[in-house]
Task: inverse folding
């Protein structure tokens, strides 16, 4: 079995990850989803962007990269949130 050749563009990741973060936050605000469900939504958006936009001619590559897009958005959001909370706690002291 040969591994698929996956080519991604730097701009796919630069645009996809912030778009996923914004979309998940909008859905979280407007639909009042439970917090535990938001990462699943981010993963689904990552898969959707990758399969249908970035890698529309390579389904296996789209699924593979979609996981990266979704989890990169989840990690970026978690990191930003942790840094903001830490900064606010430091400012209070």
Result:
């Amino acid at each position: 079995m040969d591994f698929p050749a996956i080519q991604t563009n730097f701009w796919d990741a630069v645009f996809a990850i912030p778009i996923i973060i914004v979309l998940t936050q909008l859905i979280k605000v407007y639909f009042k989803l439970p917090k535990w469900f938001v990462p699943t939504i981010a993963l689904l958006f990552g898969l959707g962007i990758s399969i249908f936009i970035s890698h529309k001619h390579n389904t296996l590559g789209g699924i593979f990269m979609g996981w990266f897009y979704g989890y990169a958005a989840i990690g970026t959001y978690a990191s930003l949130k942790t840094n903001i909370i830490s900064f606010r706690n430091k400012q209070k002291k």
Observations:
- The chain has three helices and no strands.
